[in-house]
Design goal:
Blueprint lengths: L3 H19 L3 H12 L2 E6 L1 H9 L18 H6 L2 E9 L9 H18 L4 E3 L3 H9 L3 E8 L8 H9 L2 E5 L28 H13 L2 E3 L5 H10 L5 E2 L16 H10 L2 E4 L3 H4 L7 H15 L4 E3 L19 H10 L4 H25 L12 H4 L18 H20 L1
Parallel strand pairs: 1-2, 2-4, 3-4, 4-5, 5-6, 7-8, 8-9
Helix pairs in contact: 2-13, 7-8, 8-16, 9-10, 12-13
Organism: Channa striata
GO cellular component, one term: apical plasma membrane
Function: Independently of its dipeptidase activity, acts as an adhesion receptor for neutrophil recruitment from bloodstream into inflamed lungs and liver.
């Protein structure tokens, strides 16, 4: 049996050991400090889709402070220090040519109502300035991204309406071709190319997005589309939830030559946490995600990388990144790997803020430009579910705007070729 003196010494050693055990990792302390100075901006979260699947968007039946069947809830958001989130207004490709626009509007509505129901947590945001204002108020800036070009039903007017409702990016396609753009599955060989990238109308969509100030999201498109958009967009682009192809050769990821072009044009690739895109297998660890951050930084610089977790849109996430509360662990891991404070702050939010500000500058420079109001050629969308009202000679000839755009792009290509 220990003497009283020995017992006191033993107790002191136990207390010291416990203090050492539970003292915070210095990298985590540093991560939290940086996250208190710069907003963590995540490019893609599918909680709104989960609200439709589980509750049919009936928010009165949901308590986001207690919800425990999703990656995302208010306690996890707060623990994860989420400064800003692009919430995905997503509807499946099966809605294409049917009720995609209505269902997308309902997803936009549920995001607005989520912000209204929890004003102490969320602040609806549509600009870089709004993000910083929400951050200063210790709220999560809530932006909208529409995931899939099928959601606009090949209508520039619908694109404009969605912008007016607060949508700030459009993912050009999801996992289906639209009447104007090819999707990533074309690169796997499982689907045929319909447009060799973008159709002439697809290029008009890009120009109208520039005019509006809507970010162009190249997640889910073919490499051909990536390069076409990078060549023609006046504003920087985003990949809202894609990773590095050289680390995991999945066609949803971004190859090195495209990463370099993103750097040259001032865009951003926001790393996806889905195991299948992280390790090309069913399992992954936090360190595997950090490998993608390291690779993108090595190839294209720290100014190109961001966070695009894809929480609540995927079925498998890495060990150590089980839900949105765990993201500070990844920030600490980057610091542990030698990332500087400046590089981490760039990835957290400064890169995305820069991209938004540049898109806003392009929008402001195009204020005198009229909206494009020429519809897609009727033959491109003709079906038994669609009427031809408004087409004077439906399907007979392409619009003058389309012809002019095609000639302009051809001329630009000739000028570029001659310059080389």
């Amino acid at each position: 049996m220990l003497s009283k003196a020995s017992s006191a010494v033993y107790l002191a050693l136990c207390v010291h050991s416990c203090v050492m055990t539970f003292s915070e990792d210095p990298y985590m302390s540093r991560a939290k400090r940086l996250m208190s100075e710069t907003p963590l901006i995540d490019g893609h979260n599918d909680l709104p889709w989960q609200l439709r699947l589980k509750f049919n968007n009936e928010l009165n039946k949901v308590n986001l402070t207690k919800l425990n069947t999703t990656h995302t809830n208010i306690p996890n958001i707060q623990q994860g220090r989420l400064g800003a989130q692009f919430w995905s207004a997503y509807v499946p490709c099966g809605a294409q040519y049917k009720d995609a626009v209505r269902q997308t509007l309902e997803q936009i509505d549920v995001i607005h109502r989520m912000c209204q129901k929890y004003p102490e947590t969320f602040m609806f945001a549509t600009s870089s300035q709004d993000i910083m204002e929400a951050f200063s108020m210790n709220k999560t800036a809530s932006l909208i991204g529409v995931e899939g070009g099928h959601s606009i039903d090949s209508s520039l007017a619908t694109l404009r309406i969605m912008y007016q409702l607060g949508v700030r990016y459009l993912t050009l396609t999801h996992s289906c071709n639209t009447p104007w753009v090819d999707n990533w599955l074309v690169d796997t060989g499982s689907e045929p190319s319909q447009h060799n990238g973008l159709s002439p109308f697809g290029k008009e969509v890009i120009m109208e997005m520039n005019r509006l100030g809507m970010l162009i999201d190249l997640a889910h498109v073919t490499v051909t589309v990536m390069k076409q958009v990078l060549d023609m967009s006046k504003a920087p682009v985003i990949f809202s939830h894609s990773s590095a192809y050289s680390v995991c050769p999945h066609k949803r990821n971004v190859p090195d030559d495209v990463l370099r072009r993103v750097n040259e044009t001032g865009g951003i690739v926001m790393v996806n946490f889905y195991n299948d895109y992280v390790t090309c297998s069913r399992t992954a660890k936090l360190s595997d995600v950090a490998d993608h951050f390291d690779h993108i930084k090595k190839v294209a610089g720290a100014g190109v990388v961001g966070f695009g977790g894809d929480y609540d849109g995927v079925t498998r996430v890495p060990e150590g990144l089980e839900d949105v509360s765990k993201v500070p662990n990844l920030v600490a891991e980057l610091l542990r790997r030698g990332w500087t404070d400046e590089e981490v702050k760039a990835a957290l939010g400064e890169n995305l803020l820069r991209v938004m500000r540049e898109a806003e500058k392009v929008r402001d420079s195009l204020k005198g430009t009229d909206p494009n109001d020429v519809p897609i050629p009727y033959d491109a969308v003709k079906s038994s579910c669609r009427t031809s009202y408004g087409y004077s000679n439906a399907g007979v000839a392409p619009s003058l705007s389309t012809v002019a755009l095609t000639l302009t792009l051809a001329l630009q290509a000739l000028i570029t070729a001659s310059a080389l």
